[in-house]
Structure prediction request, 178 residues.
Amino acid sequence: MKRFLKSLVTISALSSLVIVPAFLSVGKAAAETQKGTDASYIGAGVAAGVTNGGQNNDAATFGGNVTGRLKLGNTPFSARGNVLWSDETSAIIPEISVDLPIANRTNAFITGGYSFVESDGKPTPLGNRDSVVVGAGVESEVTKNFLVYTNAKVGLGAYQNSDASAVSINGGIGYRFK
Prediction:
């Protein structure tokens, strides 16, 4: 229970860092008619696990990520895919997101999906077993075809022999293909 509460506090703090600025700038964005970004992209970067499940093979793990976003028409939704890897295995995470424009060419987003760990019991930046995943992040076009992105993901019960949640902080550079 103590680990669950600690994870909940961590999730809340990370969410606040993303959500509060989004809500504060909504009025400003509406007044200036900013539209965020509609870019579909693929990117790569780093992934850092920041939690420990308390058992063997549960240590926080550093690795990389490949991330993709496909904007779903004129809706506020996107299909996303992520691969987070360590030196031992990887987690494949399909997700759906709700995107909120917060500035010109910049979105905040929340996601929901599922993590499929290729080798259960081996560490990834998001735990060592399959789990439901929620997340939040920000993406911004910095030039015509390039974006930067960052997000935090929480794998609920993502460790074997533990009910602890895993948290991963990810970021990288993306290339717009659509």
Observations:
- The longest strand covers residues 90-103.
- Residues 2-32 form the longest helix (31 residues).
- The CA atoms of residues 101 and 107 lie 4 Å apart.
- The mean pLDDT is 85.
